[in-house]
Amino acid sequence: MKKYPHHCTTSCYQHCLNVAYYNYKICRAFGLDAKAAARAGIVHDLFLYDWRTHAKLTKEHFHAMTHPRVALRNAKKYFDLNELEQEIILKHMWPLTVIPPKSWEAFIIGMTDKYCGFFEIADYYSEHFTPNWLHFPFGRIHVK
Predict the structure, then answer these.
(1) pTM for this structure?
(2) Where is each HD domain found (predicted)?
């Protein structure tokens, strides 16, 4: 996952790490299943391809709507996932994926995923367009 770019210069691995961390913190604060939220968060985008070139190679142009199933299939190959973890992975792109989440943990990952994606993109563009005093949650630290 470290070799696939995701949001600008953020790797798929770093994005999943960010989502897993915030998922854990939020779910723990609400008394939800934080462990399942973190486990699902770390593999929620385990699609193992560069989504920018995927459409050209496969003619599949709906990555945002199809990758949760691919990620779930890949995660099930490598890990034993409970029903909640599977739902979290499968529903993390709601409302783009039509069927809404049944659990709060699955709803929260959708919001966390969008939050992290926004700041990963903003962090990239902030180098040129924002003043030095404005800081983003992830700073400029990236896992190599």
Answers:
(1) 0.77
(2) 13-93
The size of the chain, in residues, is: 144
List, for residues 69-117, the tens digit of each pLDDT value.
889 999 999 999 999 999 999 998 898 888 899 999 999 999 999 998 8
* Residue 51 within any structural domain of the chain: yes
| Closest to 4 measured CA to CA, from 47, 38, 42 | 47
Calpha distance 14→4 (Å, rounded): 10
Range of the domain at 96: 5-129
Q: Cα separation of 100 and 94, whole Å?
A: 6
The DSSP secondary-structure symbol of 100 reads P
Q: What are phi and psi of 10, to 5 degrees?
A: -80, 125
Is residue 143 in some structural domain?
A: no
Least confident range from 41-45, 90-94, 118-122: namely 118-122
